[in-house]
Amino acid sequence: MLSNIFLLKGNTFHDLNSLDIFSYPDDILRNRNHDFVKKVIFGHDHGIIVENYRKDMANELEHSNQKLNQKLNDYSLDRPVPQNIDGLNVYTICINSKMIIGLIFEKNDNPIDYKEIFEDLSNEMLNNERCCKFEDEIEIENFLITLFIDIRRYGDEFIEKAPEMAFKPIGIFIKVFLFGIDDVGKTSFAHRIKTGKFIDNSFTPTRTFNIEYIQKQDGYLAVWDMPGQRAFRDKWFKGIQDSNIIIYMIDAANQLRFEESKRELWNFLNKHDSSGIPLLILGNKTDLITKPEEIESNLFRTKQEIMDYFELDKINDRDYYFFFTSVKTNFNMNEVMNTLFNIV
Question: Do 145 and 24 contact (CB within 8 A), yes or no?
Answer without folding.
Answer: yes
